[in-house]
Amino acid sequence: MKIKLCVALLMALFAGMFASAQKVALKTNLLYDATATVNAGIEIGLAPRWTLDISGNFNDWTMSHNRKWKHWLVQPEARYWFCERFSGHFIGIHAHGGEYNFGNLKNGIKFLGSDFSKLTDNRYQGWYVGGGLSYGYAWILGKHWNLEAELGIGYIYTRFDKYPCAECGEKIEEDASHHYFGPTKLALSIVYLF
Fold first, then answer.
1. Residue 67: pLDDT band with limits 50, 70, 90
2. Do 77 and 94 contact (CB within 8 A), yes or no?
3. pTM of the predicted protein model
4. Which of 15, 43, 70, 133 has its CA 20 to 30 A from that of 118?
C-alpha cells in the first residue's frame, strides 16, 4: 500500500510539473546571426516563474583573408522571472562549454586581463568551460512573439594550443591555459512562444 501511495504521489508531482510547464519557446540570437554563427535555443517552463534555457551555437566558416572564428558552444541557463515567465525582467545562472579555432583576426582589444590583440598574428585552438550570472528583459511583441535582451558576466577557463599563423600547423605553445573574467553572454533574441 505504501509503495502504491508513493507511486501515486510521484505521478501527481510529475503531472503537476508538466501542467505548469506548458509553454515552450524557440529563439535565435540576432547578434550571433550577424556574425554568421548558426544558433538556436529552446526555453522550457518549469514553474510559474522558472524556466530552463538551452542554447547552442556553431560557426565553421573560414572568412576572407583566411580569418578564422570557428567554434561551437552550448550554454544552459536556469532563469527566474520577476513577474511571470517569458515576460519582463529575469535573472539567470548559466554554464557554458565548447571548442574554438580562432586566428588572423586583426584587432587591438585588451579587456579585463585578456589580450585579444594576440589573435592578430597567432591562431589559438582549444576548449573552454565556465559559468556566470545574467540579467535580461523580454518584451512581448504579439501572442507568440517576444524580443529578449540579455547580458551575462562570468568566468571562462580555457586550454589551448598556439600556432604562429592562421594557416600554420607547427605549434609554438601546447596545452596552455587562460582564465577569463568578464562578459560571457550577450543576446538580442527573437523568440517564438508555443
1. low
2. yes
3. 0.79
4. 133
